[in-house]
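Annex B.
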Amino acid sequence: MPKEIEFQFKSPSDSPGYLLGQLTMLWQRKLKKVLDPLDLTQTQFVLLAALGWLSKNSDAVTQVDIANQSNADRMMVSKVLRTLQEKGFISRQEHQTDTRAKIIRLTATGEIVLQKALVSVENADIDFFAPLNTELSLFNKNMLQLINKNSH
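MarR family transcriptional regulator: predicted structure tokens.
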């Protein structure tokens, strides 16, 4: 007879990791539906949004800046930015002072696609998280606490 597997949590609904995984999959599925018509993956959207956000305060956004802003692996960011460049959503130019770095900018097409994606994703988020009502700010605060604690 096989040995009984022991779990620390009494049921899946007691496991925060399991619940987070389930919630993440449902949320990603919802975002895929709104991003597919714009020819964007969720990762591409996240990097475009990071670029858009950083561009509000700087004309010299680099790949490293985007990776740091999005909490993403630098090599993955490099590959995804190449794809976004092939789609015509961003441009990459030589950095004036750092020969290893590239300045990343949204193209006119990229700005249009990002704005459409932001509206779609933000509306999807509002719909998805609506059941939390007044608890949303506490939920966000808890997520920020976990991000800050685990990203170092």
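The chain has a mean pLDDT of 93. Residues 136 and 142 are 10 Å apart (CA to CA). Further annotation is deferred to the next reporting cycle.
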